[in-house]
Design goal:
Blueprint: E1 3-8, E2 15-25, E3 28-40, H1 43-53, E4 59-62, H2 70-76, H3 85-121, E5 133-145, E6 152-159, E7 164-168, E8 180-189, E9 196-207, E10 210-211
Parallel strand pairs: 1-4, 7-9
Antiparallel strand pairs: 1-2, 2-3, 5-6, 5-8, 6-7, 8-9, 9-10
Length: about 210
């Protein structure tokens, strides 16, 4: 993300667009601005022109100030840097590259979300019962969860019947992603999703067809 600033040019006679350059040196952070282009003497117009120049990921900052009259501004006007056509082409290319990278990331994100939705839509509801039932399925993921008692390894299990469960891995176990597991446990359906639930206190555990 690039940060741009709307300020005023020499003599305080025109709102201008400047790029903020931040460099980390051995003495700390060094910030300086680099002039890009003139915008307008009207603040709203200057904002509009600046936004049309920037990409969606760029950050724009600036505070509205009172400009000098043209005559007063002319007293302090110096030669203002005007970028060359090569420099403008370079900025346009950088802007296009950032836009293409953002579009690629957005497409990948949308694809991932669509895949997750399709996976979720294919699930079935968790059985509603007060009894302990047999769970048979595949471990999809394991992770560590901290708690006031020190934490535990938890797992996500896709039951062969098509619903998903979460719960703690039994102590002294070594469950891994992709393992087939079966056990008996009491389950509770999630308040937010009928296709997802939680198991607790598993017994009669069999991992990959060998007893634990």
């Amino acid at each position: 993300m690039t940060t741009y600033i709307i300020s005023t040019g020499n003599g305080n006679g025109m709102f201008t667009l400047n790029e903020l350059e931040v460099a980390i040196t051995e003495y700390g952070i060094n910030e300086k601005t680099r002039y890009i282009k003139n915008l307008s003497r009207d603040w709203d117009t200057a904002i509009s022109k600046a936004k049309s120049f920037l990409s969606a990921d760029d950050k724009l900052e600036g505070t509205k100030t009172e400009l000098n009259e043209w005559g007063d501004a002319d007293k302090y006007t110096h030669l203002i840097y005007e970028p060359s056509s090569e420099q403008i082409a370079k900025w346009d290319a950088e802007k296009a590259k950032r836009a293409a990278e953002k579009a690629k990331l957005d497409a990948e994100w949308e694809k991932t979300q669509a895949e997750r939705k399709a996976e979720h839509d294919a699930l079935v509801d968790v059985p509603v019962t007060e009894q302990r039932i047999k769970i048979e399925g595949t471990i999809q993921n394991t992770y560590w969860k901290d708690s006031q008692w020190g934490g535990s390894t938890r797992v996500f299990i896709l039951d062969d019947r098509g619903f998903k469960l979460n719960g703690a891995e039994p102590k002294k176990s070594n469950w891994k992603e992709g393992d087939k597991v079966s056990f008996y446990a009491k389950i509770n359906v999630s308040d937010d999703d009928p296709k997802f639930g939680f198991y607790k206190r598993p017994t009669k555990i069999v991992l990959n067809n060998r007893g634990e």
